[in-house]
Every structure is written in structure tokens, then in C-alpha cells.
């Protein structure tokens, strides 16, 4: 379902109805960027621990805005 200003209330109503019954919830987002050129310390490396990867991705994500998101129940 594409949600716009015209059908936002209906979509929120549907989400509130189905969310308590969901076995899982997946959330996806699109942001205005995914990389920070000039900041090599934020580049992902194959040997990064999960904690290091999370910190790097959180630092990158904090620099950009969410422009679209999706929820799957």
C-alpha cells in the first residue's frame, strides 16, 4: 500500500489493527545518503565486529534524513 496524505489515516488504522497480531515486523527505510566521503573511519571493514559495524552505521545514519520507509507485518 502506498501511503500518502490522502490515505494516511486509513493506513494508520490498518497498522493499529494488524500490528498486535503480527508474528514479526520488518522495517525498511530509504535515506538521503548512505556514505560519508572524507571520513575513512566510518568505512565498513570485513573484520569489523558487530558492535563496530553498528557504531559506524549509526554514525552514518545520523547524518542523513529518512525520506521513505516501509513496514511489513
Fold blueprint:
Blueprint: H1 8-18, E1 26-31, H2 50-61, E2 66-72
Antiparallel strand pairs: 1-2
Unreliable residue stretches: none
Note the overall shape.
Answer: elongated
Number of helices: 2
Strand elements, count: 2
Question: Which structural category fits the helices and strands?
Answer: alpha+beta
Average pLDDT, all residues: 89
Helix content: 25-40%
Number of domains: 1
How are helices and strands ordered from N to C? HEHE
What's the end-to-end separation, in Å?
Answer: 12 Å
Query: Which percent range describes the beta-strand content?
Result: 15-25%
Strand order of the largest sheet: 1-2
Oligomerization status of the protein chains: single chain
Radius of gyration from CA coordinates: 17 Å
Instruction: Describe the main β-sheet briefly.
Output: 2 strands, antiparallel
Notes on the protein architecture:
With 73 residues, the chain is of the alpha+beta class. The chain has one domain. Helix content is 32%, strand content 18%. The protein contains 2 helices and 2 strands. A two-stranded antiparallel sheet has the order 1-2.
Amino acid at each position: 500500500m502506498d501511503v500518502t496524505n490522502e490515505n494516511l489515516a486509513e493506513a494508520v488504522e490498518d497498522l493499529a489493527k494488524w500490528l498486535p497480531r503480527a508474528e514479526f515486523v520488518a522495517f525498511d527505510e530509504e535515506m538521503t545518503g548512505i556514505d560519508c566521503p572524507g571520513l575513512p573511519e566510518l568505512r565498513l571493514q570485513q573484520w569489523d565486529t558487530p558492535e563496530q559495524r553498528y557504531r559506524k552505521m549509526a554514525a552514518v545514519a545520523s547524518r542523513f534524513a529518512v525520506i521513505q520507509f516501509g513496514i511489513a507485518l
